[in-house]
Amino acid sequence: MCIATSVGLGGRNDLADVAAIQILLNLNATRFKPPNPPPLGVDGRIGKNTIQRISDFEVQAMGLPQSDGLIAPGDATVRALLAGLPEGPTKEKLSIVLPLSPAERIDHYFDPLKSGMTKYGITTPLQAAHFLAQVAHESASFLYTEEIASGDAYEGRKDLGNTQTGDGRRYKGRGLIQLTGRANYTAYSKACGVDYVAHPEKIADDPLAAVDVACWFWVTRGLPALAEQDDVKAVTKRINGGYNGLDDRIHYLTRAKAVLGL
Questions:
Q1: 108-143 pLDDT tens trace
Q2: Is there a single domain that holds both residue 48 and residue 93?
Q3: Is 176 exposed, middle or buried (0-12, 13-18, 19+ CB in 10 A)?
Q4: Is residue 250 part of a domain?
Q5: Residues 6+ apart with CB under 8 A from 238
Q6: Among 8, 137, 163, 207, which is least packed, fewest CB within 10 Å?
Q7: 51 neighbors 71 (Cβ within 8 angstroms)
Q8: In terms of domains, do 62 and 132 share one?
């Protein structure tokens, strides 16, 4: 399911769900009767234009005799919209997984994600879905590649290798999966051949590094096997140490699965 709640006339109209449907309707524009309709604004807000477009899709593209302008999770309209997606990875598909991410952030990370996931073998549908769900949550839909908190909470954490004064702030979480602690920065620097111990801020500033470190963390922490078991709780705990944001991660996961045909 690419939506968790009802969208349309009388629906719950969750912001992310409406945005996902707006994107899908735009991607299916060629299936409407000529002339093809102009793109909807993707703002996550239900209005007469989006409701009318739902109705037009059900009548014109699906051949229904009439429409009530309401879509429910997993219904025939959702399946018909998903069937109209192009083959292979696209920015538009990624935007359905992260429907509230600004278009420029999708543009910023699409190519690094595509190359990074290929490089590290994060390519099976299940593994790709879980990976995208986790990085989407960890980065708040690609808005943040550096932890908002100061990092003081990590000061003196020997389990993270923070043995020097200031290490908490210096090595706070960065990247699409928040790499944290001097020990992890040291290990990643050795693996990639770039000295991020001396320049930790570069992991957040460079989209290639922000993605690469997330992919490296995914593989070195044994997450591929957990993802292939489709165990979102186990994946979340391995990344987070607990279950913070579990429901949000699940919402991203269900959209990713829908887009990837799972």
A1: 999 999 999 999 999 999 999 999 999 999 999 999
A2: no
A3: buried
A4: yes
A5: 221, 222, 223, 226
A6: 163
A7: no
A8: no
pLDDT in tens, 26-66: 999 999 999 989 999 999 999 999 999 999 999 999 999 99
pLDDT digits (tens, 9 = 90+) for 62-75: 999 999 999 999 99
Q: Which domain holds residue 18?
A: 7-83
Question: pTM score, two decimals?
Answer: 0.93
Please indicate, yes or no, whether residues 256 and 161 belong to a single structural domain of this protein: yes
The single residue of 58, 138, 146, 147 carrying the catalytic annotation is 138
Q: Catalytic annotation on 147?
A: no
